Task: inverse folding
């Protein structure tokens, strides 16, 4: 055993009363770096060793309260500041609704941090080695004996005095414990490569297994009651109706809200004579007309309605709208062309509402006037 | 191992228990009498607070007693007699209930329903004076019966040391606990919830139950700590006994808060007029302050007062917190009852002092009376020795 470094002197006892007595005496002697090992919790040991209550409770308190506070701040920021939505007519900051969440987060963070602090701070993990491990002493005190271990780094420690002390409290056996070579040379640190690899492997395996079991083994379609409904979507067929169509025609003579049926189908001249532009020329109507004209008419008739469009050559040339013919047409006559189309020009009744058509006509008139200004316009 | 190894010399309670008890009782009685003369309606409402408080302490103690038997608890055996003596207050329930039954028409508006009010007519098969009195009497007889037999067996055991009496009491307790659950819920509905007869809360029975157990525990703890500090129990109780009492008080404080908040949260969230009306009444005028105060009086203060481990073991702290919790329960009952009387704001004056004094005096006198004729320690109980040696 020579050349080894002493860790502690241990004494082994046969009864719980003896170990309590020994612990009391050790306190009296003034030893501070010692510990007692018993196979089960011995009542009265805390008082005998004059142990102070564990500080772990403070960890729970501090992290519990910070959980409460961070839950409050988070949910307040989310529901009242960042993404304010009125729910059930309640104010954005609804404290009662926050309480369950604050409570849960309090419990969660207190519990997690208590365990974490216990393992990594109080138990000093990941260092899982201790000189007492694997000793005869440990074998005995974890079976049916009671032991005390007085460490060599105790300020009052000296081999002879400790041996004498252990004899004085009638230890059945006195065993010195030495540091393992390996333990001295090998400091287990958190950044130990082996440990890091181990952690990474654990993380990888757990997430892999979790992924596999949730996504492959027990994958279930999330609830789809709203997707699968016994209703027909547009364009679907249906055996219920004799014609096999799912979509139905409205009852004959139905007029949609805000829709005026066009009365002059195929009678553009009568339309030209009878229809009157109800939209007075105004800044707004011209602006609307320009927007719509540029979108729907300019591809063929050109931005200036002169027929110079980007279509030139690829389509029968659309005529200029500055012709005498169109200039002398009434607004109603142009309306008829937009509504019904003319020869190869299609109808624009589904793209442009009645009011928008009149606005486009107003704009065409303005374009026409621009090329053929009257004397009076200059003034 | 046998219980005969426990040596117990009976010590008489000091005479001041009787003196103070009588003084409190007399003072309370005078105030109550004057109150009934001056303002019978207000006094009747105060009477409800007092009555439900007495039920809390008495019937709650009987529940704790039954719980010890059913759970086979040993730690509470050395001071079980305290709980028994407090349960004896069940005898006095009629004393406080009779003035109220005479005034049943002034406090309970369901006694005279408007024939045009369909809701109240539909509730009439349950809420009518005859059935109400039948329930009050039946519940009282049930409580009294169980108290009578359980305590009789317990006392008999002191002399006979017959273990089969414990077994008998376990059986009685097992039957009592479900009966307690039902009767205490209906008592809460009858005495407290029916004060606003259209309002309902499905958790109300549990809410009152949580306060009941808390009040019984707190009242018991006061006597236990006082008696133990003066050496009335065999060998004395250890700090582990105190810790267990403190932990129970702490647990039920949280339980109360949990139930109280659940009731509030659901009603607040659903926001249905027929449910919110009760809380709105308690938010009227200065009642607001009493409502907010309840959170602090009944939860925040006892919570932090009993949070740490040493505070549960410290007899002084335990004593103050128990007294405080007892006060908090009275406050809670006041908060449930009085807004039905003072609709615009807090009613608080000399009249409100009558019942607390009267009942405090009664509890002391009953305790004193019981302690005279019976042992303070159930010396015949086979669990006693283990109870005294109890360590956490």
Result:
């Amino acid at each position: 055993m020579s050349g080894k470094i002493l860790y502690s002197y241990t004494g082994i006892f046969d009864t719980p009363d003896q170990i309590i007595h020994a612990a009391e005496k050790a306190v009296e002697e003034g030893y501070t770096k010692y510990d007692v090992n018993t196979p089960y919790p011995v009542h009265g040991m805390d008082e005998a060793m004059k142990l102070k209550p564990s500080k772990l409770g403070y960890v729970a308190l501090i992290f519990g309260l910070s959980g409460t506070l961070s839950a409050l701040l988070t949910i307040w920021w989310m529901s009242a500041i960042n993404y304010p939505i009125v729910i059930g007519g309640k104010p954005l900051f609804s404290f009662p609704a926050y309480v369950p969440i604050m409570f849960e987060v309090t419990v969660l963070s207190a519990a997690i941090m208590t365990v974490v602090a216990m393992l990594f701070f109080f138990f000093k993990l990941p260092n899982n080695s201790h000189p007492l491990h694997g000793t005869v002493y440990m074998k005995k005190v974890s079976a049916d004996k009671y032991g005390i271990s007085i460490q060599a780094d105790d300020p009052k420690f000296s081999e002879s005095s400790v041996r004498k002390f252990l004899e004085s409290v009638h230890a059945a056996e006195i065993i010195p414990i030495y540091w393992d070579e390996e333990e001295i040379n090998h400091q287990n640190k958190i950044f130990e490569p082996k440990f890091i690899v181990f952690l990474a492997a654990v993380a990888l395996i757990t997430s892999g297994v979790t992924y596999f079991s949730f996504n492959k083994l027990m994958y279930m379609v999330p609830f789809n009651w709203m997707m699968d409904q016994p209703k027909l979507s547009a364009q679907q067929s249906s055996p219920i109706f004799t014609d096999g169509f799912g979509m139905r025609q409205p009852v004959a003579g139905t007029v949609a809200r805000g829709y005026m049926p066009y009365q002059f189908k195929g009678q553009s001249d009568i339309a030209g004579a009878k229809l009157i532009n109800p939209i007075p020329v105004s800044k707004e109507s011209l602006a609307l007309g320009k927007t719509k004209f540029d979108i729907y008419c300019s591809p063929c008739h050109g931005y200036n309605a002169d027929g110079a469009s980007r279509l030139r050559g690829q389509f029968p040339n659309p005529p200029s709208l500055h012709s005498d013919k169109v200039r002398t047409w009434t607004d109603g006559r142009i309306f008829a062309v937009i509504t019904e189309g003319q020869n190869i020009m299609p109808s624009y009744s589904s793209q442009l509402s009645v009011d928008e058509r009149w606005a486009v006509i107003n704009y065409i008139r303005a374009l026409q006037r621009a090329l053929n200004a009257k004397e009076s316009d200059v003034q | 191992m046998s219980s005969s190894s426990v040596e117990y010399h009976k010590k008489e309670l000091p005479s001041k228990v009787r003196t103070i008890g009588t003084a409190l009782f007399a003072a309370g009685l005078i105030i109550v009498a004057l109150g009934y003369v001056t303002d019978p309606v207000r006094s009747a409402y105060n009477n409800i607070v007092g009555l439900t408080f007495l039920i809390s302490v008495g019937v709650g103690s009987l529940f704790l007693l039954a719980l010890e038997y059913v759970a086979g608890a040993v730690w509470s055996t050395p001071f079980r007699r305290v709980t028994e003596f407090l349960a004896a207050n069940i005898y006095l329930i009629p004393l406080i209930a009779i003035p109220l039954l005479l005034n049943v028409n002034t406090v309970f508006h369901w006694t005279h329903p408007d024939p045009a009010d369909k809701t109240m007519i539909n509730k009439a098969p349950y809420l009518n004076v005859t059935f109400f009195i039948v329930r009050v009497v039946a519940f009282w007889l049930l409580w009294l019966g169980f108290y009578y037999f359980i305590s009789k067996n317990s006392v008999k055991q002191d002399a006979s040391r017959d273990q089969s009496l414990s077994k008998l009491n376990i059986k009685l307790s097992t039957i009592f606990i479900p009966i307690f659950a039902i009767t205490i819920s209906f008592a809460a509905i009858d005495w407290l919830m029916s004060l606003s007869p259209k309002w309902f809360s499905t958790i109300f029975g549990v809410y009152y139950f949580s306060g009941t157990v808390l009040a019984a525990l707190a009242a018991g703890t006061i006597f236990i700590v006082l008696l133990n500090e003066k050496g009335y129990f065999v060998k004395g109780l250890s700090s582990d006994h105190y810790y267990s009492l403190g932990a129970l008080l702490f647990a039920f404080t949280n339980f109360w808060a949990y139930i109280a908040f659940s009731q509030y949260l659901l009603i607040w969230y659903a926001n249905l007029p027929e449910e919110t009306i009760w809380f709105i009444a308690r938010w009227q005028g200065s009642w607001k302050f009493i409502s907010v105060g309840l959170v602090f009086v009944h939860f925040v203060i006892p919570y932090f007062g009993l949070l740490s481990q040493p505070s549960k073991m410290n007899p002084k702290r335990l004593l103050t917190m128990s007294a405080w919790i007892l006060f908090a329960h009275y406050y809670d009952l006041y908060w449930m009852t009085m807004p039905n009387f003072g609709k615009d704001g807090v009613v608080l004056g000399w009249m409100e002092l009558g019942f607390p004094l009267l009942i405090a005096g009664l509890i002391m006198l009953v305790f004193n009376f019981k302690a005279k004729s019976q042992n303070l320690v159930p010396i015949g109980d086979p669990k006693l020795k283990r109870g005294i040696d109890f360590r956490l």
